[in-house]
């Protein structure tokens, strides 16, 4: 009798442990917690995790204090009591484990790991997620816009960084941009494709603010067209085109296939954001636009897109840069894993399922005939 009771008790204990393990691995529900981002600033974070029809986990994150726009995860991976949420739209991730059935102990990483613990909540205890702002107005595709008003000022030499941005109202701005960089942006070329440029066009930097003469955010072609007109009008830029055979990289799909998250936001423009040395977050970009970014900012040759991929994608690319650039005493220390990262060629294949092929190919070259310092506003 004692043997049977012992066996029954053992069986009951194992059943209880199995049920407890199953329960402990249930990640679905609404989770919330506070992310400390430094200097006393905290952000309320919400994660909604569900299971799709194919039984795979899906997740949407919200940063309540930053407007509450939904941020859809790329992939959500569960391994026992561990969870990993990839966030390609912002070049980030969240990794956590269930320390108890209602607590996720984890780390949010967007270039720098930050502790983020989340608790499972009920509809009564959940924070209110604010309504996201309406989508930005899109400029009509059949218009050929120009800048109605544009101001050009010498950049502040004490201010670090460089950017070219379009805000939700369609206002175009650049910071710390020399004429050479503006030509690269406007014409979508590699720096080596620009010839006969005066020295000041690489050294003197400007801040530009431009208001389009049509409402809404223009598409990639419209934004570049406005910049071409501004360069001709305000910088007196005159150039002609020649074809030359140059060493270039072609961008191809690797044998493993692409490893990219499709962006279905319907947005007009891509986004390219630095995540520290040797790391970029890419959002809503075609492969042609990504090739243009690579040749303008990352690699030493023109890049020609031969992937055949036609969608828009979100992803993060992290590699070991050949140089870190000039020392900046205000910059954070380099990432600890910098030396162990693959080079740009290995990273492209491992992380994106893409690869470079070096070859000589006919490439268009821009020969500058005339350029002058910008006219008054």
Relevant terms:
377 residues; disordered N terminus; alpha+beta; 2 domains; 9-stranded antiparallel beta sheet; 6 helices; Lipocalin
Characterize the structure shown.
- This protein is α+β, with helices and mostly antiparallel strands.
- It has two domains: 101 residues, Beta Barrel (Lipocalin), CATH 2.40.128.20; 207 residues, no CATH class.
- 19% of the residues lie in helices and 40% in strands.
- A nine-stranded antiparallel beta sheet has the order 4-3-2-1-9-8-7-6-5, with no helix packed on it. A four-stranded antiparallel beta sheet has the order 10-14-12-11.
- Helix 2 runs antiparallel to helix 4.
- It is globular, with a radius of gyration of 25 Å.
Q: What are the segments in which pLDDT stays under 50 over at least 5 consecutive residues?
A: 1-24
Gap from first CA to last CA: 98 Å
Count of distinct structural domains: 2
Structural class: alpha+beta
Q: Largest sheet, described in full? A: 9 strands, antiparallel
- Report mean pLDDT, rounded to a whole number: 87
Beta-strand residue percentage: 35-45%
Strand order of the largest sheet: 4-3-2-1-9-8-7-6-5
Helix/strand order: HEEEEEEEEEEEEHEHEHEEEEHEEHE
What is the overall silhouette?
Answer: globular
| Number of H- or I-type helical stretches | 6
Would you report the number of β strands? 21
Oligomeric status:
single chain
Compute the CA-based radius of gyration.
25 Å
Share of helix among residues?
10-25%
């Amino acid at each position: 009798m004692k043997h049977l009771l012992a066996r029954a008790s053992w069986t009951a204990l194992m059943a209880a442990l199995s049920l407890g393990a199953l329960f402990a691995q249930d990640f679905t529900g609404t989770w919330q917690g506070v992310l400390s981002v430094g200097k006393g600033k905290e952000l309320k974070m919400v994660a909604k995790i569900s299971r799709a029809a194919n039984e795979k986990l899906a997740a949407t994150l919200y940063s309540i204090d930053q407007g509450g726009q939904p941020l859809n995860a790329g992939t959500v991976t569960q391994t026992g009591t561990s969870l990993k949420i990839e966030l390609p739209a912002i070049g980030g991730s969240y990794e956590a484990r269930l320390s108890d059935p209602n607590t996720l102990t984890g780390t949010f990483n967007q270039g720098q790991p930050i502790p983020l613990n989340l608790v499972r909540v009920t509809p009564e205890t959940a924070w209110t997620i604010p309504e996201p702002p309406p989508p930005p107005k899109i400029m009509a595709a059949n218009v050929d816009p120009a800048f109605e008003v544009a101001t050009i000022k010498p950049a502040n030499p004490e201010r670090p960084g460089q950017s070219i941005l379009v805000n939700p109202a369609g206002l175009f701005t650049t910071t710390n941009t020399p004429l050479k960089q503006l030509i690269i942006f406007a014409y979508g070329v590699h720096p080596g494709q620009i010839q006969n440029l005066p020295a000041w066009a690489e050294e003197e930097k400007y801040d530009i603010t431009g208001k389009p003469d049509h409402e809404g955010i223009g598409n990639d072609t419209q934004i570049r067209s406005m910049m071409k007109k501004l360069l001709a009008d305000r910088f007196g830029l005159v150039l002609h085109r020649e074809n030359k055979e140059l060493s270039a990289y072609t961008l191809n799909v690797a044998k493993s296939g692409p490893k990219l998250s499709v962006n279905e936001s319907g947005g007009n423009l891509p986004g390219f954001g630095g995540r520290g040395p040797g790391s970029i977050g890419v959002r809503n970009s075609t492969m042609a636009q990504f090739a243009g970014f690579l040749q303008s900012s990352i690699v030493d040759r023109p890049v020609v897109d031969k992937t055949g991929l036609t969608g828009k994608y979100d992803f993060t690319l992290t590699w070991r840069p050949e140089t870190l650039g000039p020392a900046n005493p205000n910059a954070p220390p380099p990432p600890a894993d910098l030396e162990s990262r693959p080079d740009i060629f290995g990273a492209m294949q491992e992380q994106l399922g893409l690869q470079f092929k070096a070859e000589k190919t006919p490439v268009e070259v821009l020969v500058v005939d005339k350029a002058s310092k910008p006219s008054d506003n």
